[in-house]
Design goal:
Layout (H helix, E strand, L loop, with lengths): L7 H8 L2 H5 L9 H13 L3 E8 L2 E11 L2 E8 L8 H16 L5 E6 L3 H9 L3 E6 L2 E6 L3
Parallel strand pairs: 3-4
Antiparallel strand pairs: 1-2, 2-3, 4-6, 5-6
The structure holds coenzyme A.
The site of coenzyme A has 21 residues, from helix 2, strand 3, helix 4 and helix 5.
Length: 145
Amino acid sequence: MKVTPKDEKLLFTWANEKLVRKWSFHNLPISRLDHNNWFRKNLKNKKLHMWKLKFNSSFCGLIRIENVRKNFKLSYQISSNFRGRGLGTKMINIAIRKLRKKIPKAVIYANSFNQNISSHKTLINSGFKVREKKGKVINYINKNN
Ligand SMILES: CC(C)(COP(=O)(O)OP(=O)(O)OC[C@H]1O[C@@H](n2cnc3c(N)ncnc32)[C@H](O)[C@@H]1OP(=O)(O)O)[C@@H](O)C(=O)NCCC(=O)NCCS
């Protein structure tokens, strides 16, 4: 489901979860004001798909796919209460299926820290391959062949 203006608070809570900040490229806690600016800008961005995943009638995860010069960049998270059930893989597969319905040849990239094992496994389980390793960051690619 698409993220709507009503989701601002939910996404603020998720954005400041411990693991989410730990595995983000900007580690510091996010202030309400910064989040508000980020959220409004992102909702207006036509090149960005922001979807949330529902599980047992609760929202449990967020996925963002951004069109950057004809490539797609994916980032995602599962809320802490819902981790450990493979929902990340499920959410990524749903999102990629949706995107490829519109753009069958879409090439999708993702970045993750090399120590983020659950993200590594999630991306591999979702059909991503390691494209390159740069310092602590692994870049992944998912192509439809
Ligand atoms: C990455 C994330 C979405 C995965 O959540 P999830 O879907 O609940 O993942 P799971 O706990 O089901 O684990 C996924 C896989 O990693 C494995 N795994 C998890 N923790 C592990 C660990 N410490 N050591 C080895 N394997 C581990 C699981 O066994 C599973 O593998 P399998 O399906 O092949 O058995 C979640 O941890 C998260 O939101 N993290 C914070 C944000 C983030 O890191 N986003 C990604 C960067 S863009």
